Amino acid sequence: MNEDLEHIAREIRFRLIRLSHEAQSAHLAGALSCVDILVALYWRILRIDPADPLARGRDRLVFSKGHAVAALYAILAKKGFFLEQNLARYNQPGAGYPEQPCPGLTPGVEWATGSLGHGLGVGLGMALASKIQKNPHSTFVVMSDGECQEGSVWEASMLAPRLDLSPLTVIVDFNGWQATGRSREIMQMEPLAEKWTTFGWDACEIDGHSMQEILAALESPRDHRPRAIIARTTKGKGASFIEDDNNWHYRSPTSEEVERAAQELKVAT
Amino acid sequence: MRNAFADEILKIALEDQRIVVLSGDIGNRLFDKFKAAMPERFHNCGVAEANMISLAAGLASSGLCPVCYTITPFVTTRCLEQIKLDVCYHNMPVTIVGTGSGLSYAALGSTHHSFEDLAIMRCLPGMRVLAPADAPELRQILRSTFDQSAPAYLRIGKKGEPVLTEGQPFHPNRWQCLREGRDAIILSCGTILEEALSAAENLSASGIHAAVWNCASVKPLDFEALSSLPPAPVFTVEEHSILGGFGSAVAEFLSFQLSAPRVHRLGIPDEFLHDTGEQHESRIHCGIDSAGIMKAVTAALR
After folding, report:
1. CATH code (residue A66)
2. Number of domains in chain A
3. Fewer CB near the terminus (10 Å): N or C of chain B?
4. Can you give the pTM of this predicted structure?
5. Which residue of A has its CA nearest to B92?
6. What pLDDT, on a 0 to 100 scale, did the predictor assign at position A41?
7. 3-state SS assignment for residue B302
């Protein structure tokens, strides 16, 4: 029933692999891991009009893992926030689609991120503003698992339940890797969902590549608590030779590797 | 000064729906009236300043004007990256108010001293940096802050500062000449003004006529005032490190002038202060009390 979304996700993944090759840009694997989450959000959940991306009552998505912004650009292009051909400008100087997001530059990019641990606090502010101004909208923050090592994340996580920010959702793209190793070997990450639960969030853990599980986690009825979704993902998801290999935090694919990815993803080149 | 802040922000917020006050668990009972009048627009963000700043930026992105209030080091250097990226990089109209700045809490030691905040805040693009001298000036600066829809940093004292600027004409970003004099120019920044005025008074008794300017606006500087100073040595006075702060800003500007006066920077020496007593004793220790300023001016003119 979610075949259309799964097809879109495959297309986006291939676009990202090709983009990384064309732009010779890093962070491909962390972009691939969050594609299903973003597709579910943009195609089924978020109320943001691509023709009016700054509308007062829009839902807010803070993409806090700014290093993976290529995934967001590819999604925004496909949704019509800007022309798909503009993706060719990604990582080109002065072209409006920088390697990490800038404020007010690219249509549909809500917040400039890249230093980890900022997005959740900003999302709290957006959710609180919605309450103060009686301007009902939802706020979503997409973070990485490595990002959860920043103290500021836990500052924010302690405040959100106290402010009764139920229209706030954080989704952790838990791909298990960070810049130099497996996140669980660098810090005591686990049990991550339990941490959020004990901090007062309505937390759950899902397969972050199952469209059905992602949508169920986003759409299930809410109580007064903000929601945390720990989405287990595979870094580099979509091409067997990229998956779970942290070299792809840094390198970009060759043209042969792009061809191979097209075959694996069953998309036309 | 902090009571004036609480009183004035209450008055402003009653008229301006955009104002939201965030505190970092400080100001015991200070904001009771605000909380009673507008509970939805006052939030104690706990002992978690980094999150307070990011949250403020998120509020501002929706059109609100948040004010972040706690003790100066905790609302400046502690959460510097949040100020740099979430507030300044996004040019969000967040007003950061550092209370008990400089030597206000001298006896509490380096954890509560702020001698580097002016230096650090003024090198953030888009940030206005303001250090009012007393409660009336604080009230006026606070009111003018929200008209500009841009980040601002206000460095204020704690309580009991003498009122020195009452009745002075106020223009945002302009300095006030409180005393004329052609032998020396004392440019005073912030609550140290009382010492500067007292020094000038005592100097006049020994025949040295020093002008005294109250310079609340550190960024932008009052370029017009600086460009029209009479030819006399300049003495900058601040409760801040002699490195990077108000005096440095003045020296940077004057270094462009063809016939610039000498600039003597009086402030906290480049060291941590240990056990130097309360504010007054610490001012004496640093040579920025009335007698210390007088001594510096006299020595330079000799």
Report:
1. 3.40.50.970
2. 1
3. C
4. 0.97
5. A103
6. 98
7. coil
